[in-house]
Amino acid sequence: MISAIVYDSLTGSCQKYANLLSARLHVPAFSLKNAPVRSDGKIIYIGWLFAGKIVGFKKAAKKFNIAAVVQVGMAPVGPGSDEICREINSVPADTAVFCRQGAFNMGRLPLHFRLIMKLKNKDIVSKLQAKGQLNAQEQALYTMASTGVGQPADWNVDDIAAWAE
């Protein structure tokens, strides 16, 4: 049984997913910085992506019994996203993996991340423009990258909640 949701959020997306799951599962949500060490059960860890790595995952894995990890990034989620996440982040085989598209707000990023994302966003926009027809998640990514702000195609946690229940 899941006893808590623990998250690390840079611009608010991971916190929003944590709050949605917390309400749905009737368990508390804590930021990684403020989370009490829990010996009474398993947690779901939600972290944001930076260069393919889930920020805070290794730290959380040392403190908590993680039953599931949720990675949140700008990119659309597709077939194989969970396997890529598991491999890059060395997520154990007995830990469930879920991938989500999050929101983006260039203005909420620290300066060094803004500089990186300014360049990255140009690349994202040009690749999506070349693609032509975009699905809902790709359109959300295009909006985020071209304007510097945007929301994901949806904030769905149904499959994560169903797994946890």
List keywords for this structure.
alpha/beta, 6 helices, 165 residues, two-stranded antiparallel sheet, globular
Describe this structure in words.
This protein has 165 residues and is an alpha/beta fold. It has one domain (2-164): Rossmann fold. It has six helices and eight strands; from the N terminus they run βαβββαβαββααβα. It has helices spanning 13-25, 57-63, 81-89, 111-131, 136-147, 158-164; strands at residues 2-8, 29-31, 42-50, 53-54, 66-73, 96-101, 104-105, 149-150. The strands form two sheets. Strands 1, 2, 3, 4, 5 and 6 form a six-stranded mixed sheet that branches. Strand 3 and strand 4 (53-54) form a beta hairpin. It is globular, with a radius of gyration of 16 Å.
Order of helices and strands: EHEEEHEHEEHHEH
The total count of strands amounts to 8
How many alpha or pi helices? 6
Global mean pLDDT: 94
Write a compact overview of the structure shown.
With 165 residues, this protein is of the alpha/beta class.
Give the SSE map.
Elements: E1 2-8, H1 13-25, E2 29-31, E3 42-50, E4 53-54, H2 57-63, E5 66-73, H3 81-89, E6 96-101, E7 104-105, H4 111-131, H5 136-147, E8 149-150, H6 158-164
Parallel strand pairs: 1-2, 1-3, 3-5, 5-6
Antiparallel strand pairs: 3-4, 7-8
Helix pairs in contact: 4-5
